[in-house]
Amino acid sequence: MTSAPTILATCKQTRFHLLDDNPSPEIDVEGLVITVTSAHDSAEDAPKTKGKGKSKAKATGRELISDGHLRLKGGIHYGLIGRNGTGKSTLLRAMAEKLIPGIPHPTRIAILQQTQDQDESGSSYGLNLEKTVLESVLGSDESRNEAVRLLDFLSKCFDTEDPLMPVRAIRKIRHEQARKKLFLAQKNANLKSGARGLQARKDLKTAEAKLESTQELLAEEPDAIDAEAVQTDTQEAAEMLQSLQAQLEDLKLADIEKEARRILLGLGFKEEAHQRKVGTLSGGWRMRCMLASVLIQKPDVMILDEPTNFLDLLGVVWLENYLQQLRETSETTILLVSHDRDFVNAVCEEIVILRDQKLNYFRGNLAAYEQDHEEQKLYLGRMKEAQERQIAHMEASIRENMKIGKKTNDENKLRQAKSRQKKVDDRMGLQVSANGGRFKVNRDLVGYHLTARAEIEVPTDERGATMSLPDATELRFPGPLVSLEGIKFQYKRNEPVILEDINMVVHIGDRVGIMGLNGSGKTTLIRILTGQLIPSKGKVTTHSRLKMGYYGQHSVEELQERGREEPGLTALSLLMAETDESLNEGAVRGLLSSMGLQGRIASDVPVGKLSGGQLVRLALARIVWSAPQLLILDEVTTHLDFHTVTALATALSSFNGAIILVSHDRFLIRSVVEGKRDTDHKLDDDFEGLEEETEESTARSRAVYVVKAGNMNKQPNGVEQFEQSLVKRVQKMLTK
């Protein structure tokens, strides 16, 4: 069993804002450094790090962010983007756990994380598995829970006939508060030095003395407590009780329960499911419950890490609309990560880019950022090309003047060459100022440390590693790859019908998209297509030479389990074993490389330590190595960043076999199945869609189906038609 990595976070703000008593939806942290170290590394380096542990810990760990500036304005909805493995989830966790000292301790931060683990107390990221769904959501607000706990504790003390019970209660509460203040004071003293460190150590001594005094009062014998102390402490307990009652009345618990039910309905929980125990839910429904728990809190900062992963399209559209409404009615700052381009585009007002260990910001949504990126790349690229031609001409002129000047001993020529060389050295570079205006030497190049203009840096594309699929094996004779005729399915005769009268024919090169809400029968249909289920009625026919590649919803989880069972298993050794040595090591390495798993990642990194995105690539390599004619992909984008989704869309677009794609990702269905180039999001140049088919006269059969109530209906207007029907439903839900 491997230990969880340790996150080390430092910043300039450690000296100033640690003990800020005011919660704030705004975060402004400069000089942020985030390093991840494993317990194994720490243990190995323990003898070496004696005396200077902090600096050595940084050196032995992996630095994800270096000298970054984390800046979030109150009430703004941000989208955090960056390639898989750059540290997005680590940054979000460091914020949520207040590991970044510059974040004020009282700031309320709620987080939805990608994964969930069960701890020894039987809870899963704050969800008590023994509580009902509604109880768990209502009990998710820690500040309200603490107020309820204290109110209940004090109320019971006043209900007894013992006059000393309120005294003991208020002294116990004081002791708990003193312990919390001591913890913060210790943290503050460890991080400060100089004059501020002296004051921090004085504060620490004060906190230690306070804790000691509260401990003495708590341990005081009943006979030793005088009447005056009883009266004072009882009065303080009564005032705290009244304050807590007023605080909870302001929260309007009835309204909170109504809002909780509304959120649960929006996320797909029917009324009867509200009373189910959390422990009986599947992993996907627990994540929905966790999402509801985060949304109900209305914190200062809300962090959502892939919130759409376990939602169907109705849930995604509902969440889009809910967060858009929240922007107008709340001051909550939102920072979210999502591979769903349409979702990020609809929800986010500004974009945070994590790249090259730095944080950069763009005011506008994702589509505007990508458009601006392309324009900057074109503009600066042209500027650099023009300047390179100018420099080449000037350098040729300098060489000629130097040659003539030395030959004829002409000082004017030599001075002219020297002047031009200085211009090449100091005056060439970026021709625009930081504000976007024309560069002026006397304004933009002041200070002894600035002697030349900045180099022109042309932005490069921030895309995931490219992916390519092997061509499908040729069929010896023509015919449909798979056909469904009058398919009906029900598990037992007296149980409801899951699928009714399903008809579909798929030929080589066809593109089929299957959409629908959770529980509509999509998974059952896929299991019939892959031969895992036999239909109750109807006929399934497959080509006698058909090779099928199937990516299931749980393919990544299966690889993770395999990695835990076999710690030494790598992507290379796994694929070598599964290909039965029909491919040599070079061919397997080439296949893994074409899927984006190059070199050491394929041969040295254990499967158990691969990221979610890398496991998706490995799972795809497992199904395409035999060059199948039909790919069936069920929710393949769940663990990918949107750059990799773009690469996958390009790879699938040029695949010469047939594809059946089950997905809630509107971008992927539009691009792969409908063959449309998205106007908001630029696709790779290698993308092959409708335009290429028209030119080459190789039109494919393309169809989007929606499974609803056991029936499968073709959508003449594709994804847009289905999305619009869901938008109408969501608008009705939000107005109730």
Features of this protein?
736 residues, alpha/beta, Rossmann fold, 6-stranded mixed β-sheet, 25 helices, 20 strands
Structure description:
The protein has 736 residues and is of the alpha/beta class. It has 25 helices and 20 strands. Among the domains are: 1-108 and 327-364, Rossmann fold (3-Layer(aba) Sandwich); 373-444; 479-547 and 628-719, P-loop containing nucleotide triphosphate hydrolases (Rossmann fold), CATH 3.40.50.300; 555-625. Helices cover 47% and strands 15% of the residues. Strands 5-8-9-4-10-11 form a 6-stranded mixed beta sheet, sandwiched between helices. The protein is globular, with a radius of gyration of 31 Å. The model is unreliable at 14-18, 42-59, 116-124 and 446-451 (pLDDT under 50).
In short:
This protein has 736 residues and is an alpha/beta fold. 47% of the residues lie in helices and 15% in strands.
